[in-house]
Write a structure and sequence with these properties.
alpha+beta, two-stranded antiparallel ribbon, two-stranded antiparallel sheet, 7 helices
Length: 193
């Protein structure tokens, strides 16, 4: 069973994991796969969200987007993911994380079910259960990254077209690709819950 919820304006995929949870309780180990613009420690704080922001110099996914800009990849990503409408700036929402993953929730669920079978196989073969869990969640992260990368390649789908002014300035009609740095900043990681 797959449910799609909106929580605090953020899309969230909720998947019924009863079989997976029973297996997890039996063998231990609990992981979470994070996908997005994931940063390292920055200005004394750990960046924990896929689109989290903080001040200071950034490393990893949070490094500065352009040398002459104070914006980080996470800043730019958040602007595109949610859109901006204020007196200084107007930017249409072009979700490159939430919408592609929500649209692919059935595929992700099917892949997760196959990973459960791999973990069962690891138990039968005497492989380290913790290693099997970690590898399964890493594989989910790679699959999710591929889905997000596909949204850049397809120009959405569903992203509003660029204005003529933007196309002239960029000298390209490719959406969300100026330097490709935002696209390259998408990563995944697995953390213990």
């Amino acid at each position: 069973m797959i449910k799609k919820n909106l929580i605090n304006g953020m899309g969230q995929i909720v998947i019924n994991n009863d079989v997976l949870d029973a297996l997890r309780k039996a063998v231990g180990g609990r992981y979470i796969t994070q996908v997005g613009i994931l940063g390292q420690k920055a200005a004394g704080r750990q960046a924990t969200g896929a689109l989290s922001k903080s001040k200071g110099e950034y490393t990893g996914g949070h490094r500065k987007a352009k040398k002459d800009s104070d914006l980080t990849n996470a800043d730019i990503g958040a602007k595109h993911e949610f859109g901006v409408q204020n007196e200084k700036e107007r930017l249409q929402m072009r979700s490159f994380l939430r919408m592609p993953l929500l649209r692919s929730s059935k595929e992700l669920f099917e892949r997760k079910q196959k990973l459960v079978l791999r973990i069962k196989g690891a138990i039968e073969n005497g492989t380290s259960i913790d290693d099997a869990w970690l590898k399964a969640f890493q594989d989910l992260g790679i699959i999710a990254q591929q889905i997000v990368q596909g949204s850049f390649e397809q120009g959405g789908p569903g992203w509003p077209a660029l204005s003529k002014t933007t196309i002239e300035r960029k000298k390209s009609d490719k959406i969300l690709i100026d330097t490709a740095q935002l696209r390259r900043s998408i990563s995944s990681r697995v953390v213990k819950a």
